Amino acid sequence: MAKSNHQLVDLYFMDARSKLIDIAAFMDRVERAGQTDDFRYVAFQEALACLSKESRAESILNAFSDMSEEPLAEATLGPALGAYKKA
Amino acid sequence: MRYIEPHAHMVSRTMDDYQALSIAGCRAICEPAFWAGFDRSSAAGFYDYYRQLTEYEPKRAARFHIEHYCWLCINPKEAEDVGFAREVIGLIPEFIHHKNVLGIGEIGLNKNSKNEVTIFEEQVQFAIDHNQLILIHTPHLEDKRKGTKLIVDILGQFPGIEPNRVLIDHVEEHTVKMVLDLGFWAGITLYPESKCTPPRAVDMLEHFGSTDRIWMNSACDWGVSDPLSLPKAILELRKRGFDDGAIDRFVYQNPVRFLRQCPNFRLELD
Lengths: 87, 270
Prior knowledge:
The complex is a heterodimer. By secondary structure, chain A is mainly α. Chain A contains three helices and no strands.
């Protein structure tokens, strides 16, 4: 089924480059604002380490995930925030 | 190019969207019952919603030569109040035999709570008892991995479950394998921010697309979402070298194969 012997770098480099710069600018922005202790930003930094692993997308999704297994006693209020807040 | 939109919340969309979908090649839309952006204050609110799904939306879609189908349930977001949820489930038998109803969905989990699990189990049993297909919502973002694992484990405890009659939706790279490995169908949802982009969806199709048990959808609703994300994914497939036959399988034939297990679904495979 694999079809990706097309010129994937031609296809995606500029888009990925743009997103990488956006990530860098986001980190600069948060740092300037002194908000690096936000749990989401801490999770974000930890997720960056997944870029040096295999299956990067899967690893990053797991890094942001609640890895517990038991149902919660009751539903929490508000929307999902994108990163699991560790106790 | 012909395609089926297997998951769209058209009650939240305009006629412009129906027109754009039709022009883009959409032949049928399947609309699961969902959380409308606010909690309904009574079961009567759901009664009206089920009427909208079974009576009104098919007429709007027909104006643009699109067939409209729906799924019925109480969504997990509004299932935390078990008594209320059971009252709503009690309304479903009145609607379940309507000619555009495909089955029970989108049931599932939202915050992975015990009460959500209770109502999920009861609606799975309802579907089995009424010989209905099942469409399952998996939680958002950080809750998805845990919720998907809970869902497949719960389904494994039902001897009456046939995995090929269950679609587990909103899979991403960390959940798609656990769904497909157990014989369920998997849905990839294309969202601008959360869930999946067209390039990532094509990555997953490259990895897992040899199975027929996978489809893509926009799940467009009242939030930041794109009813034309499926045609955009078709373009992405072309850029990646997939031919028309393979694309047709992903966006038309696969949905038809799953949905034709419901006798109400009328589109043909060819």
